[in-house]
From TrEMBL:
The chain crosses the membrane at residues 56-81, 93-112, 132-149, 161-183, 195-218, 238-259, 271-297, 318-341, 353-372, 393-415, 421-442. GO terms for cellular component: plasma membrane. Keywords: Antiport, Cell membrane, Ion transport, Membrane, Transmembrane, Transmembrane helix, Transport. It is a multi-pass membrane protein. The keyword Transmembrane helix applies. GO terms for molecular function: antiporter activity; xenobiotic transmembrane transporter activity. It is found in: Cell inner membrane. One of its GO terms (biological process) is monoatomic ion transport. This is Multidrug-efflux transporter.
């Protein structure tokens, strides 16, 4: 196979695998966007509370998702050599690890108001955030189990079902939000608590549907038989790979959580604008993330065959696709900022103009880091494909926290750039991560054709 043919082959294979995953991630994000948009129409205070509480939930969720992300390369590698027993063992123990993690993190979320107050947040917004999390906390276990099943299916390249279940969850979320947030069809008007309850219902329903599909379509794996029996060897394997992934996720997401905290110091208008701009930037990120997941699966398959040439070609193909996505997203953020921001607020909202004014600046900053944000999440996916997670964790902590958070604080508050400075600090942290992670992957996989 020529180099040109190889690139076309891997680009096509990546695109076919990634498209349903991208659609699934976008639909999943749309569930969060639905909460933000509907609560923004309900009140700016409710939106700020959801942003604050939702940020903490996402931090917890993304750490716990490390076990689900670990399943993807392990199952893909096992399936490539037709080891069905290992596929079952890894997936079951990924579910075990997720459940144990979920049980540990529910109490801090249920009683979170004191944490928000300690972080300097407005008392009213902190109270609303706790109201939101007191219900949403119970969604952490079903949401993590959904991630386990999605990773298992993605590793087996059964991505269409992931897409359609997530789209169905989005439709359900919109309907339940409409009913519970605003009190339609005779239901009580629950505001921010209604949005939390809707998310809980949707996650439980998603898990049930995926479990039924797997039990009927993939009975050879017997995932749900004797699920209570421990498999300490497989649990250790998942944990060794999953904890570094979870901590890497924590380092990245806590960079954005820290930026949310800093924006909260500036007041409810900058915080609301930050939340909306971050949601918009997350749309492009979900495309990069879906591509990263696809690259993890494809690289895991090549890794199990010790095919270094394919490992590098897959990475180059993924980087070319993510560059196209980044350019498109940056253009939209710069050309249509008011239209993007306006979706999240009622036309008669008194603070609408003030939020949009701040948000336009933040979207311009978001446009600057689209490329580097895509490259850093791709690089993490590449390294997970070769089951390299510990050094990337160290790189992530250094890049996101030591560099990124410090830069955000310095630019935003020491030299007085405020919200723009906070976002430029994010860009600096992401850029350092992208360079170091890509350099590591290239160092590991670089070899001549004679060596492969």
């Amino acid at each position: 196979m020529s180099k040109a043919t190889s690139y076309r082959h891997h680009t096509r294979a990546l695109a076919l695998l990634a498209l349903p995953l991208v659609g699934s991630h976008l639909a999943q994000l749309a569930i969060t966007l639905t909460d933000a948009a509907m609560l923004g129409w309900y009140s700016v205070e409710a939106l700020a509370g959801e942003i604050l509480g939702g940020t903490l939930f996402y931090v917890v969720f993304i750490v716990g998702s490390g076990f689900a992300f670990a399943i993807m390369p392990l199952v893909a590698a096992a399936a490539e050599i037709d080891d069905q027993t290992q596929v079952r063992r890894i997936t079951r123990m990924g579910a075990w690890a997720s459940i144990l993690f979920g049980l540990a993190v529910i109490p801090p979320m249920v009683w979170s108001e004191s944490l928000f107050l300690a972080l300097g947040q407005d008392a009213r917004i902190a109270a609303l955030a706790q109201d939101y999390l007191a219900i949403l906390a119970w969604a952490v276990m079903p949401s993590l189990l959904v991630m386990v099943l999605k990773s298992y299916l993605a590793a087996l390249e059964r991505t269409q079902v992931i897409l359609w279940v997530t789209v169905a969850a989005l439709v359900l979320n919109i309907f339940v939000n409409y009913v519970l947030v605003f009190g339609n069809f005779g239901f009580p008007e629950m505001g921010i608590r209604g949005a939390a309850l809707a998310s809980l219902i949707v996650n439980v329903a998603s898990f049930v549907v995926l479990a039924i599909y797997i039990a009927r379509v993939l009975p050879e794996h017997s995932l749900f038989q004797r699920l209570w029996r421990p498999d300490w060897e497989a649990l250790g394997q998942v944990s060794r790979l999953g904890w570094p992934i979870g901590l890497t996720n924590l380092a990245e997401v806590s960079l954005f959580a820290a930026s949310t905290t800093m924006m909260g110091w500036l007041g409810k208008i900058p915080l609301a604008a930050h939340g909306i701009a971050l949601q918009a930037a997350s749309v492009a990120f979900m495309i990069h993330l879906g591509l990263s997941n696809a690259a993890t699966v494809r690289i895991s398959q090549a890794y199990s065959r010790a095919d270094r040439i394919s490992m590098r070609t897959i990475a180059k193909s993924a980087m070319a696709i993510t560059a196209l996505v980044a350019v498109t997203a940056s253009t939209l953020f710069i050309v249509f900022p008011e239209a993007i921001l306006g979706v999240f607020m009622h036309p008669n909202e008194p603070d609408r103009a003030a939020v949009i004014t701040v948000g336009v600046v933040l979207l311009a900053a978001a446009a600057l880091f689209q490329m580097i944000d895509g490259l850093q999440v791709l690089a993490l996916g590449f390294l997970r494909g070769i089951q390299d997670t510990k050094v990337p964790m160290v790189i992530a902590v250094f890049s996101y926290w030591i560099i990124g958070v410090s830069a955000s604080y310095y630019l935003g508050f020491v030299i007085g750039m405020e919200g723009l400075g906070v976002w430029l600090g994010l860009a600096i942290g992401l850029a350092v991560a992208a360079v170091l992670l890509l350099a590591r992957y290239w160092q590991i996989t670089t070899s001549s054709e004679q060596d492969t």
